[in-house]
Amino acid sequence: MIFRHKFGKPLETGAAVNFDGVEIADDEAVEYFTVEKGGGIRFRRRLGEDTAVYGLGENVRGINKRGWRYVSYCSDDPMHTEDKQSLYGAHNFIVVDEEKPFGVFVDIPGRVAFDVCADKYDVLEIIAEDDNLYFYEITGDSISDIVRSFRAMIGKSYVPPLWAFGYQQCRWSYPTEDSVREVAREYKRAGIPIDAVYLDIDYMEQYKDFTVDKERFPDLKALAEEMKEEGVHLVPIIDAGVKIEKGYDVYEEGAANGYFCKDESGDDYVTAVWPGKTHFPDFLNTEARRWFGLKYKRLTDMGIDGFWNDMNEPAIFYSEKGLERVWTTLDAVKEQGNIGMSGFFAVRDAFGGLMNSERDYRAMYHNMDGETVCHHRVHNLYGYNMTRSAAEALDEIRPDERTLLFSRASYIGMHRYGGIWTGDNQSWWSHILMNLKMLPSLNMCGFLYTGADLGGFGGNTTRDLLLRWLALGIFTPLMRNHSALGTRNQECYRFENSDDFKGLISLRYRLIPYLYSEFNKSNERGDMMFRPLAFDYHGDKRARGVEDQLMLGGELMIAPVYEQNARGRYVYLPEDMLFVLFDGADRFEAKRLEKGDHYIEVGLNQVPVFIRRNRLLPLCRAAQTTSALDRNTLELIGWTNGAAEYELYTDDGISKPVKGKKLVRLRAENGSVGSDDDSIAVSDGGVIFE
Ligand code: GLC
To answer: What is the pTM assigned to this prediction?
Structure first.
């Protein structure tokens, strides 16, 4: 059951779309919190010592969010250290795991803080800056039940084409046609599967959206075609800021039609990003949104069928006013002659405060279809609506086919339009674990198509770090290796013994029937593809404390190794399971393990998977690209003491609305395996019949 309370006059975010089973009250009588008003609203609740709090999507720290303060305010910050409070997404949904669990969704497009027992060890406080919001309280029998109700209310998630489940290679940047060709060629030469190569900002002419640099990419259309013949898709980046340049049509049209955000005096707001001075399209305006979205057609006309939307918090390097403030400070300090402590810090802070400054967000305005609204109040809707702009236009431009689309900034609601990647992480071991911990929280908030920059974006990766990270990445729907300008090149074929990489990534391709099934079934049923053990084994106190293993779909538990030089790890099994250790893609050893603690050894080229009792894992044969995958010939592995079944979801992988969709039952019973659909052939890949 969901109860919606209304405070003041909330701005409509579009996060909730289905109000069946939602009791809508215009009152402020929330049940689970005490409410304090005055300069915003504070919702306060005392929590029991063992109460865990889950959710908040893209964030630092634990799966159980207790013990820190998180702030929803989409932030372009590449240093995802523990002391941070905001990352790129703003996902205001939590579940409080008390004796009678309940969920809360705070629907407000501006800043809101969740102090989860950080200030006071037993107090959960939600602090909204603005006193206009919707406050949803969600009840249910279990955490999964509450999540399901919430997900039903916010609507189904974006579904990408099947090829977007293949391995993808990115780099800032592959700056020429030949460098793109080389990546595709070298992957193929090494026998490592690949489905996409990315085009980062350097494919554009001076970082101008919807342009292509003619010298470095003389014929993008021909290149896209040539790559597609190899089964490789090109995925260009689109940035939020539009370069101010006379004669550049996107700038000219935006300015002439009033499609850009404004400053206090009503002029087009000037900020700077990659191209220098830019304007931001007003994605909160229906006409502007449509106008910008239809520009993607320039690239789809060249055969492009995937995009990533970036810098859409929006990231601001500086504003004109901010820069003026810096010059004023510098002049004043310079006059002091001998620069002492205060002068030195004044200079440092003046520069440090230039980027992504709240002052700039407060000085920017939207035309929300007739209503002028300060950006700061609706900050968290910007990236969301940039992606909505693309998705809605792509529905018109490519109505019959799914397009790959994901964003950096997001708010709940955007999950219907695209996926997200989790931004600029680092080549740090701790970020493997952070990647794992975010997955269930993101799923709770509707973000199913998601993944991290594998190998780490900033800093130099190492062979072992990349291998260990890939061994987690083979399970995430978006599996993309990406790295920053100036860092070590981290394409898999560059490292010694590339067969280890080939093995891991080929295993990913073997898992695609399972991952695609679990993704789609989770979406249709409002379930989470990745769940903390606490959700499935709630009565088990040990399981409730596990923060480095996850349930994946209905059959698997994953437990990657994430520490430098570790040759294995401890795993907690909440029930008896079949431990399958893949050694590359084709070899594995399987062993029954009892509920309890175990130490497992895992080599750098190995992947541990745990299959629940009486469940089956379907695998297909690996292929160089998803287009060459035979999803109709499957092997089953698992363990049964009677009869086990797997419900396979399949469709044609590309059409929209989905065609060829079916659920097929695969079974293992009395020593043999079978399928209830003649077009899906199954064989026994190693089922243990007790
Ligand atoms: C931002 C993105 C990153 C990209 C870079 C250059 O930092 O998060 O993925 O490579 O911009 O476009």
So the answer is: 0.98
